[in-house]
């Protein structure tokens, strides 16, 4: 199993200390976090694209390129690229460039995104939300098939007649993932296209999302694809500290600051309390905040439910102390990842029925 991290590069005021972290400091710290994750042998680091004042990463490929030459083995990806409001040709070129910088470690995780600021910023209508993503995803897939692109054009993309697209990825193609938030239609599209599926689970009880993975695998069969060849991932919130209390104490202020701010924007109602946050970190909850042992147990329990190939944790939610975040990454890489890998390997090696 692959284990990794993702973040959006939060900026603003630390709700605990009151210190303000701006884009310059956050991006420099972010490179240090990616470098540490690589040194610890973690498999994946993803950056989400946003166009808001509370996030520093509006250009994931650029930020990842800053870490490219300071890392050796970790895979670098968007998480996600908001493909609907971008140019698929430029997205592909940016990540193909990153792929060459890293010697073949770049990926694209494409999605609709959970925020809408990029649509008016780049001149797109929200009424075209569905058709934009579908058409541009088809173009992105076509770009990955070969050096010269012939594209008929469509409602949102121009006609392209046999033009070369450069640079090409190191191994000829880029891994393309589809990120979904829980809609069966998006899951079915990923299966139809034969693309790996990343499922975001940020609330509720994770086991309730298991039918989506079942749908994905059954749909893949119907489209003549081998489900075993299609990778899956769950992307979740969490934090690792020496004790569960420390994990909750550290993560809650920043997490609640973010979720309550977004909740006010979207009319979610009451603010999240510490008790609710702690409850979500219990074994059946969606929050993977806890001690290394607790997080290991929770990952393994969810692996039994989902059978995923990749587990990705968002620990940097909101503005928090960089030193504490680096310590959390260290614990994730040295205490959690080895135990999870060992347990999963043992499961695979065990005789059937044991």
Description:
This protein is of the alpha/beta class and 354 residues long. It is 44% helix and 18% strand. It has 11 helices and 14 strands. The chain has helices spanning 23-39, 60-68, 88-102, 118-121, 129-143, 184-193, 210-222, 244-266, 274-280, 292-306, 322-349, and strands spanning 2-7, 12-13, 20-21, 44-47, 75-78, 81-82, 106-111, 148-151, 160-164, 176-180, 197-201, 232-240, 288-290, 310-314. An 8-stranded parallel barrel has the order 1-4-5-7-10-11-12-14, surrounded by 8 helices. Strands 2-3 form a two-stranded antiparallel ribbon. Helix 2 runs parallel beside helix 3 and helix 3 packs across helix 5 (129-143). The model has no long low-confidence stretch (mean pLDDT 96).
Strand ordering within the main sheet: 1-4-5-7-10-11-12-14
Strand content: 15-25%
Largest sheet: 8 strands, parallel, barrel
**SSE order, as H and E?**
EEEHEHEEHEHHEEEHEHEHHEHEH
Calculate Rg over CA atoms: 20 Å
**What's the helix count?**
11
Helix content bin: 40-55%
How many extended strands? Answer: 14
The averaged pLDDT comes out at: 96
Can you describe this structure in just a few lines?
The chain is α/β, with parallel strands linked by helices.
Task: Reconstruct the topology from this structure.
Blueprint: E1 2-7, E2 12-13, E3 20-21, H1 23-39, E4 44-47, H2 60-68, E5 75-78, E6 81-82, H3 88-102, E7 106-111, H4 118-121, H5 129-143, E8 148-151, E9 160-164, E10 176-180, H6 184-193, E11 197-201, H7 210-222, E12 232-240, H8 244-266, H9 274-280, E13 288-290, H10 292-306, E14 310-314, H11 322-349
Parallel strand pairs: 1-4, 1-14, 4-5, 5-7, 6-7, 7-10, 10-11, 11-12, 12-13, 12-14
Antiparallel strand pairs: 2-3, 8-9
Helix pairs in contact: 1-2, 1-11, 2-3, 3-5, 6-7, 10-11
């Amino acid at each position: 199993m692959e284990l990794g991290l993702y973040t959006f590069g939060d900026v603003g005021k630390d709700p605990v200390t009151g210190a303000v972290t701006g884009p310059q400091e956050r991006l420099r710290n972010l490179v240090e976090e990616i470098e540490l994750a690589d040194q610890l042998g973690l498999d994946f680091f993803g950056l989400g694209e946003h166009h808001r004042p509370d996030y520093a990463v509006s250009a994931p490929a650029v930020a990842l390129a800053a870490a490219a030459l300071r890392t050796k083995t970790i895979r670098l990806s968007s998480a996600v690229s908001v493909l609907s409001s971008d140019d698929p040709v430029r997205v592909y070129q940016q990540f193909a460039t990153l792929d060459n910088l890293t010697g073949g470690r770049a990926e694209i995780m494409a999605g609709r995104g959970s925020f809408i600021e990029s649509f008016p910023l780049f001149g797109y209508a929200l009424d075209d939300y569905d058709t934009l993503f579908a058409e541009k995803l088809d173009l992105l897939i076509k770009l990955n098939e070969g050096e010269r692109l012939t594209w008929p054009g469509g409602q949102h993309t121009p006609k392209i007649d046999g033009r070369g697209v450069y640079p090409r990825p190191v191994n000829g193609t880029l891994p393309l993932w589809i990120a979904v938030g829980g809609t069966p239609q998006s899951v079915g599209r990923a299966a139809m296209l034969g693309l790996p599926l990343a499922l975001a689970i940020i609330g509720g009880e994770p086991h309730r999302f298991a039918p989506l993975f079942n749908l994905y695998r059954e749909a893949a069969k119907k489209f003549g694809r081998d489900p075993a060849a299609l990778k899956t991932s769950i992307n979740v919130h969490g934090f690792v500290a020496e004790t569960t209390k420390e994990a909750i104490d550290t993560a809650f202020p920043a997490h609640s600051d973010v979720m309550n701010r977004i909740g006010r924007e979207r009319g979610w109602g009451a603010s999240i309390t510490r008790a609710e946050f702690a409850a979500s970190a219990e074994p059946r909850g969606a929050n993977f905040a806890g001690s290394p042992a607790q997080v290991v147990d929770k990952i393994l329990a969810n692996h039994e439910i989902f059978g995923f190939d990749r587990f990705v944790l968002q620990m940097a939610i909101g503005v928090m102390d960089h030193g504490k975040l680096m310590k959390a990454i260290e614990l994730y890489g040295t205490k959690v990842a080895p135990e999870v890998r060992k347990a999963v390997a043992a499961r695979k090696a065990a005789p059937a029925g044991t």
